[in-house]
Design brief:
metal-binding, 174 residues, Cytochrome Bc1 Complex, Chain D, domain 2
């Protein structure tokens, strides 16, 4: 089974557990609050990955997401998730896109032909530099959408937890 299919199946399985819809977006700050810590990875009340930023220090996954975003996503989606003439501002999109939908779009890609204009998000389900860090990307963009993470490189971050090292080694095959 390809990684893209596995991620898509996971996203569809999580869909019933999805977070807020656009009608509930105003509650995003409360929904994004970290209530559980699993070895340095923070989760919200629904079990979705989220950020934790205290006294200007971001969690490892937010910092990693920043790095991965600026490695693979900013070319189309603009610096700090602010969008471009080519692709939408993900700092806005994550206000209404839930975790399973995010996983599905990144893994499978997406084609939008609204308003007589065609936009295509390529599938990244087979790109280890993206799919091994999907949660990191989601957490970073969620923090940007909530306004918790300012523009630019986070000046301070938590150390990389052992769980992140182990997951990276396992996913990247090293």
């Amino acid at each position: 089974m390809s990684i893209r299919i596995a991620i898509s199946v996971l996203a569809l399985a999580l869909l019933p557990l999805a977070g807020p819809t656009s009608a509930q977006a105003e509650d995003s700050a409360d929904k994004a609050k970290a209530v559980k810590d699993e070895g340095g990875k923070y989760l919200d009340a629904d079990g979705n990955p989220t950020f934790k930023i205290e006294n200007g220090t971001v969690d490892w996954y937010t910092f990693s997401g920043y790095r991965r975003y600026h490695s693979d996503c900013h070319v189309c989606h603009g610096q700090d998730g602010m969008g471009s003439t080519y692709a939408p501002a993900l700092a806005n999109s994550l206000k209404t896109i839930d975790y399973p939908t995010f996983l599905s779009i990144v893994a499978q890609g997406r084609k939008n032909t609204a308003n007589g204009k065609e936009n295509v998000m390529p599938a990244f389900g087979d790109n280890k530099n993206v799919y091994c860090y999907l949660d990191d990307l989601y957490v970073y963009l969620r923090a940007r959408a909530d306004g918790a993470a300012p523009r630019g490189r986070p000046p301070k971050h938590e150390d990389k937890p052992q769980a992140a090292k182990d997951a990276e080694k396992s996913c990247m095959g090293g």
